[in-house]
Amino acid sequence: MTTPTAYRAARTTERLDTLVADVREAVGRGLPPDLTAYLVGERLAPHLGAADLLTAEQREGDPERYRQHVLHAEHDGSFSLVALVWLPGQRTSVHDHVSWCVTGVHEGEEQERRYRLVPAGNGGAARLVATEDVVNPQGSVCGFAPPGDIHRVWNACGARAISIHIYGADIARLGSSVRRVYELPADR
Predict the structure, then answer these.
(1) How far apart are CA 134 and CA 136, in angstroms?
(2) Which runs of consecutive H residues, i.e. helices, occur in the chain?
(3) Which residues, in sequence order, are CB contacts of 27 under 8 Å at separation 6+?
(4) Residues in a beta bridge with 186
(5) Would you call 171 helix, strand, or coil by DSSP?
(6) What is the spatial distance between Cα 29 and Cα 41, in angstroms, rounded to a whole number?
(7) Options 3.40.50.800, 1.10.3720.10, 2.60.120.10, 1.10.10.10; which CATH number does 5-181 get?
(8) Which controlled-vocabulary keywords does the entry list (predicted)?
(9) For 25-71, how does the pLDDT look when each residue is reduced to its tens digit (9 = 90+)?
(10) 19 neighbors 27 (Cβ within 8 angstroms)
(11) pTM
(12) Structural domain boundaries in the chain
C-alpha cells in the first residue's frame, strides 16, 4: 500500500511520536472496539493542551470549513491520528463513522449533538432524534464505536478550537472518517 505524498511530508513532534507509540500498544492488544477506544482515550488524555504536540502548520485552520490534518496513519491501516482545526462557527454535517473513534479537545471548546436513528414504521420515514447536547472543553476525551455514533460537531466559541481524533481506520487512504451523512428530519 502506498502512502499519499501529502502524508509522507507531514512533520511530527517528539510528543506526537510518543502518543503514536502509546496508541499502537493499545490497538495492538486486539480488544473489541469499545474497549480499544477506552484504552486509546486513556493514552490521549495526558497530551491534550500540550504546546509541543502539534507543529504550527498542524494548527492552521481554513476560513471556508474545518480543516483536517492527518498526523499519522499506521502502516497496517489499524489506526490514524488526525487534528481537526475549527474556526468559529464551523461545523460538520450529521454523520456517523467507519470505525471506532476517540476525540480529545486540544484547544478551545467543541459543541456536540448526538442522535439516535428511528427507523421508518407504518409507511412513515426514518428520522433522527437528538439524544444529548454536550459541551466538550479543552482536555475532555470521548470515544465511541458504531453503531450508535451519529452526531454533529461545531465550534460555537469566538476562538479557534483544535481536536485530536484517533480512528480505527486508515484516514490517509480513506480521506475521511465519515461513513454516512444523514439528511433525515431531526428533532430539535
Answers:
(1) 6
(2) 5-8, 14-27, 33-44, 171-174
(3) 36, 40, 74, 78, 79, 168
(4) 128
(5) helix
(6) 15
(7) 2.60.120.10
(8) Dioxygenase, Iron, Metal-binding, Oxidoreductase
(9) 999 999 999 899 999 999 999 999 999 999 999 999 999 999 999 99
(10) no
(11) 0.86
(12) 5-181
